Amino acid sequence: MNTKTCTYFKNQIYDAIDSRSCSMDLSGDLSLHLKECKNCKNFYERLLSTKESLASLEPVPFPKTFDEHFSKKLEEEPKPKKPIWLFFERRPILIPAWSFATVLIIAFIAIFSVSRKPESDWAMNSIVSHEIDLYQNLELLENLDELADMEKTL
Question: How far apart are CA 143 and CA 149, in angstroms?
């Protein structure tokens, strides 16, 4: 069967098994699919047997002190988180320092974002410099060829 279809029906199997109703009536499409697809039928049977096995287990009793411990935890109020400005309230010297640092960062960003050349100019300059290097290397090669020819004639 199609894996996309099987995925859809597996989700329906989960819904059917997790439903609170005691009757395990399956929808017509799902029961038809289970008759046709062995993988989904095996999946359904394994999931159903797992649910039945878990239902047959006896419940585990809570320890006797659980209620007391749980009640105490509920009564305890969680410590409220302190707002950030209380940090500065006890350290007033940090307020100007943080302000100064913030201004420096903004100025730094502003200066370097304005003075930066557009990337297209940088790319063009890079290409031009590489072309100049290439021409210089070609001239050197030609000069070497001329020297080799001169040595042969001597």
Answer: 10
Up-side HSE of residue 72: CA atoms within 13 Å toward CB? 5
- Tell me, what's the pLDDT at 59? 84
The neighbour count for residue 17, using CB atoms within 10 Å, is: 15
Q: Is the C-alpha dihedral spanning 62, 64, 65, 68 positive or negative?
A: positive
pTM score over 0.85? no
Q: For 74-91, write each residue's pLDDT tens digit.
A: 777 777 777 776 766 777
Is the pLDDT at 58 greater than 70, yes or no? Answer: yes
Q: Which residues contact 48 (CB under 8 A, 6 or more apart)?
A: 17, 24
Helix axes 38-56, 28-36, angle to 10 degrees: 110
The band of 22, judged by pLDDT with boundaries at 50, 70 and 90, is very low
Q: Record the tokens describing residue 143, joined without a space.
A: 């000069």
**Structure tokens that stand for 48 in this block:** 């159903």
Structural domain spans, the chain: 3-56, 85-153
From 17, 52, 19, 59, select the one nearest 34 (Cα to Cα): 17
Are residues 6 and 41 in contact, defined by beta-carbon separation less than 8 angstroms?
Answer: no
